[in-house]
Amino acid sequence: MQTADSLKQYKDELRESLDNEFLRAALDAFAKAYPAGRQRAFADYDFRALVAEGAVIKDAAAKKMDELYEQFKTEAEKRGVVVHMAKTADEANEIIARIAKEGGVKRVIKSKSMTAEETHLNVRLEKDNLEVVETDLGEWIIQLRHEGPSHMVMPAIHLSRHQVKDLFSDVTKQPQEADIGKLVKVARSQLRRKFVEADMGITGANFAVAESGTLGIVTNEGNARMVSTLPRIHVALVGLDKLISSSDDAIKLLRVLPKNATGQAITSYVTWISGATPMTIPGYPTKEIHIVFLDNGRRALAEDPLFSTILRCVRCGACANVCPVYRLVGGHKLGHVYIGAIGLLLTYFFHGKDKAKNLVQNCIACGACKDICAGGIDLPRLIKDIHARIQEEEGRPLQSRLLGQVLSNRKLFHTLLRSAKAAQKPISADAGYLRHLPLIFSSKHNFRALPTIAEKPFRDRFPAIKPSTKPGGLKVAIFAGCAQDFIYPEQLEAAVAFLDKSGVNVEFPVDQSCCGLPVAMMGEKDAAKKVALQNVKAFNPDDYDYILTLCASCASHLTHGYKNILAGDPALITRLDAFTRKVVDFSTFINDVLETRTEDVVQQAPVKAAYHAPCHLCRELGVRQAPRDLLAKAGLDYVPTTEEEVCCGFGGSFSMKFPELSKELLNNKLNAAEEAGAEILVTDCPGCVLQLRGGAHKQGRKIQVKHISEILGKK
Amino acid sequence: MMSPMFPMSPEERIETFVAKAQAVSATVTKASSMEEAAVYAVGLADSMDSCLLLLGGDEANLSEEASLLCRSRDSKSVAAPSLPKAVRESLATACTEKNIRFVQDHLRDQVAGFEVGFSIAAAGIAETGSLFVPSTDEDIRLTTMLCETHVVALPISEIVDRAEDLEAELKARMAGPDYSAFITGASRTADIERVLALGVHGPLELHIVLVEA
Q: Which of A19, A143, A197, B103 has the smallest C-beta neighbourhood within 10 Å, fewest atoms?
């Protein structure tokens, strides 16, 4: 459970996780194993279609949340259940404490419920001197350790068998072995007695089916069936977001949830409880069942035009499973109660701004979570929006405001870059790297060499290299982006030469500026919008067939980002639509539009080449094959590497804010390329080049890092 | 279409059901009648070690409580409440022959566990190798949970392609009060170091007997 007050304290806590060798190894192993298992589970299915179907179901349910609640209540009451509504977490806890009191309850057993974690229910019940025992193995372990969960599906993933052995030795008062099979049996025999003794069982629910007042509970251990069967009172604590119309809907969602969570086709048990059934305890002919629905901000979310999609979450935990940051720091550092990308969002809505303000900054925006989300939620975008909202509420930090002001004014920004070039002169090293870090960086940033600003930016070089007009040729306008305009102009020059020889007309509209992604990442919404407008105005889409960029991040931001940022401006709709449709990335243009063939390309020495897929290219734009085809066409020996599509750790301002995390991600990437025997590492984005090349240089690694334009020469 | 698996031919349906069930470590066998399936369950109990919580871990002397649970039982048991008359009689006869106790009700008194629980599934779902087991009867529910090995008889004719094909029956049951389950494989966990372990709170093994008739 993350509770740091300041960003500095939060960063110190992150450091502790980075130094936890067991945690790192466990999460690494999981991150590598999870995608393969999941892929097998979905082998016979169209994942996107399942997600789309689920999103329709959940969106429709969120829209009529109140109506579904009333229907559920009516139907459940017909079947002998008492239904309660709690506006807040405290209210839910009070209702359950009251049920316990009125029912003369002394002992409570629970099966896993994130909603009960959300309300801190155990703390409340223990105040009334009730014995509360978790029966899910992972939950029991963390309960005994007085911790919160570090994963929504595997709450004790941060612990080793040795730690569990010590814990269970204490509990049973006799030495146990660090044998997982035996440790599981300890839980079986210890908890069996608790099931018998308890007078109240508390569960959550995965589905609340309104048409029949039915609860659907998805478990593997079987404990939810025992919890809802053995004690005479059953209480289910259920978020209003679990309401759906029908059992048909539940079955459809069930097709995605376990596959995405753990790679299982289905869990061992899916339990359907429709009302109070007969019981065999003398004096208690039927079960006493209470269902407590929890609002705690969910109704407000359902009304929110931007954030209502959060309610599509089915708590599969996949967003944590693929998060490169989660993999480094674990769930206690990447969540308050709820973990992972969805956890950052839910923390804000369920536990408040103070708990969320540090967490929301720890998203590298690589899009891996969005890609895998069972609800198709645009998690990185919503996290940025929450970050911006918190900054508005708290007052934006000086650094962020300054960058916003500078980037909003192209001339000022470019003047500053040019004067920075002059200022760096005394410290420029021969290899194109700064010899010493500028003072604004701390020593933690010293994991990679930073490049110098080019002698002459691309915008000043272009007039001299502008190709002659070719009647009938395609017309392409280059969007340079800051990194290539001012740091790596040679990448753009190489591209222009290729285009020229391919018979393409090339233009460079000079009013273009930074795409605005850095300020959007920092939550500077106004600046992001100003810059976007400036760029849309700088390019008249009618004048070009394509707007070409060699930067994956710019390409993604100019399209998806701008559609969000400039949405709602009716005067702009047509222009924006034409603009975004014309944006194309370099690899797609060369490979798919120009249909460049092997015989058109200057052949490189056939050395082994690895490819790093930029997040914004492979996931946001869905470009996967074109760059790999081009590597082969250039004569390189393309070798696949592990986790080719995992973020390199740059993430723009992320690497400035969290250099220690950035460094770890970078190292993983370089290690993977070297382990594959690659001599060259090719990528499609100048930001990734800056990170990977600077890291390789700093660490004295032999591997060469190239932008794909630098390995492509047109014959 | 969300999946190219559907619709299945009758042969594919059975093959898929068996393959999916085996993929989650269920044992699948065939019997020509429900009575034969019941006898299979008794045979299984007979072949198991006599100490009931053996697989539960008391052989390793895990705790005092586990040892007490073990000592509290003196013979092997098969639990099978609410069976059709003919099946019940076959099972009772087999139990008598093997000197095994036949438990038909008051399963709450058996929480320390018993060797085998025998129940009859209303349907099988080929897509996931799941059993649809109505268990509104609390004794049936406890039978499926408290045993070391759960034996489920499933008429082959009741296997459907996917859960959607059970919607009419599901809705009819949900008119309630009702308690039903999809059961797929044995109780499992991967909560310690993500290492799969079978048998946490529920059965350690699941045996499915496909009944031909």
A: A19
Distance CA B55, CA B140 (A): 22
Q: Could you report the per-residue pLDDT of A81-137, keeping only the tens digit for each?
A: 999 999 999 999 999 999 999 999 999 999 999 999 999 999 999 999 999 999 999
- Give the whole-angstrom CA distance, residue B199 versus residue B212: 29
DSSP reduced 3-state for A654: helix
For tokens 């052995």, the residue is: A165
**Does the beta-carbon distance from B201 to A262 stay under 8 Å?**
no
CA torsion angle A371 A375 A376 A377 (round to 10): -100
Map residue B209 onto helix, strand or coil: strand
What is the per-residue pLDDT across B152-208, written as a single tens digit (0 to 9) for each? 999 999 999 999 999 999 999 999 899 999 999 999 999 999 999 998 899 999 999
Distance of CA A12 to the CA centre of its chain: 22
Q: Do B179 and A265 touch (CB under 8 A)?
A: no
Would you say residue B55 has pLDDT above 50? no
Q: How close B116 comes to chain A (CA, Å)?
A: 17
Query: What residues in A contact B117, CB-CB < 8 Å?
Result: none
Q: Where are the beta strands (DSSP E) in A12-106?
A: 81-86
3-state secondary structure (DSSP) of residue B65: helix
Q: Report DSSP state, residue A472.
A: T
pTM score, whole prediction: 0.93
Mean pLDDT of A23-50: 95
Among A309, A329, A322, residue whose Cα is nearest residue A379: A309
Cα A24 to its chain centre, rounded Å, is 18
Region B47-73: mean pLDDT is 54
The DSSP code for A602 is: P
Confidence of residue A652 (pLDDT cuts 50, 70, 90): confident
Cα separation of the two ends of chain A = 58
SS3 label, residue B152: strand
User: Residues B39, B150: contact at Cβ < 8 Å?
Assistant: no
Tell me which DSSP letter residue A434 carries.
B
